[in-house]
Specification:
This protein folds into 2 domains: about 40 residues, no CATH class; about 280 residues, 3-Layer(aba) Sandwich (Alkaline Phosphatase, subunit A). It is α/β, with parallel strands linked by helices. Strands 1, 2, 3, 4, 5, 6, 7, 8 and 9 form a 9-stranded mixed beta sheet that branches. The structure holds zinc ion (2 copies). One zinc ion binds next to helix 9.
Length: about 350
């Protein structure tokens, strides 16, 4: 039975299910039909998520984001109450862009080349999900302001190389063409969501990192505030869109932070294991998550991939990390066998 049929049945069921006697018989029939549909789809119990969107804001320091809310992130500070916020979330391995992103998409920390000349050693959630779902490449997208992040689409692992590749839109016009403004990346994101209705997407927004490296404090802060607004615009889009509302999980996180003041150039640089570089953040919103808590449990970038795999129901055994159980209400944890 097709998913659309099941939706329709449930919609009709909701419309007609009321205590008036003349509709009870019809309701009972539709209820039976609905049960039949969900069994035949083998839909795992308890999960509403059908789409996962990951937004990586590249390289802001915690002290300029969640360390001083609402501060420069007024929109996310408000959104926080609708999801779960993790204030002890870390990149505890290699604190630069390609490595941080690779940890997110493969669940493995590796000291990968940071200029886009090396593919990840392991397949990504995109490849694993495309294989398990049987969906076309347009169902999984990587859309990044940094051109060098096109490496996230493929792997060096021979069994997976050039297999089940996601769609890419990276930098100005692909690898070697330079970084693009985050406003343009957001435009591409919205166009892609409207056209392809993908179920899995990773977005990279680069302005905080780019302007910090340029030593421009005002533009670094402006980048943080812009990206805050873009996350809100994206969330609003997802809430209004008929395909995405009520079944979409949004994860907003960073690949790395920046040096604490006084360490190696301070806020302009990053890349070591200082608290400023390692301490990042995760805001998670979605139909399956708790609403409102601030979680102090320590989690790291490699926990994201197994969590996405759980949400999109595919096997994921390679991860160094674990499913982020603090996201889920107790009842849902039981249903998910967590
Ligand atoms: Zn950087
Ligand atoms: Zn540092």
């Amino acid at each position: 039975m097709r998913i659309a049929d099941s939706f329709l049945a449930q919609k009709i069921l909701l419309r007609y299910f009321n205590p008036r006697p003349y509709s009870l018989a019809l309701s009972a029939i539709l209820l039976l039909a609905s049960v039949h549909f969900s069994v035949s789809e083998a839909k795992p119990k308890g999960l509403r998520t059908k789409n996962v969107i990951i937004v990586v804001i590249d390289g802001p320091r915690y002290s300029e984001t969640w360390g001083t809310v609402p501060g420069h992130i007024p929109d996310m500070a408000k959104m926080r109450r609708r999801g779960v916020f993790f204030n002890n979330f870390l990149n505890d391995a290699y604190t630069y862009t390609n490595s941080g992103h690779t940890a997110i998409t493969t669940g493995i920390n590796q000291p990968i080349d940071n200029y886009g000349h090396e593919l990840p050693a392991n397949p990504s959630i995109f490849q694993l999900w495309l294989k398990s779902s049987g969906k076309p490449a347009t169902a999984a997208w990587i859309i990044t302001s940094k051109d060098k992040l096109n490496i996230l689409g493929n792997t060096l692992q021979p069994q997976w190389q050039n297999q089940y590749l996601p769609s890419l839109n990276c930098g100005v016009n692909g690898p070697g063409t330079g970084y693009r403004a985050d406003s343009l990346t957001l435009m591409v994101v919205k166009q892609t969501l409207a056209r392809d209705k993908p179920n899995l997407m990773l977005i990279n927004l680069m302005e905080p990192d780019g302007y910090a490296h340029a030593g421009n404090w005002n533009f670094y802060i402006r980048g943080i505030t812009r990206d805050d607004r873009y996350v809100k615009q994206l969330w609003d889009y997802l809430q209004k869109d008929k395909h995405y509302k009520k079944n979409t999980t949004l994860l907003v996180l960073n690949d790395h932070g920046r040096h604490l003041d006084g360490i190696d150039g301070g806020w302009t640089e990053h890349g070591d294991s200082c608290e400023g570089c390692q301490h990042i953040s995760l805001l998670a919103l979605g139909p399956d998550f708790k609403k409102g808590p601030i979680v102090a449990t320590r989690y790291t970038l490699v926990d994201v991939a197994p969590t996405v795999a759980k949400l999109l129901r595919f096997n994921f055994e390679q991860a160094q990390g674990h499913v982020i159980t603090d996201l889920f209400p107790k009842k849902k944890l039981k249903q998910l066998n967590l």
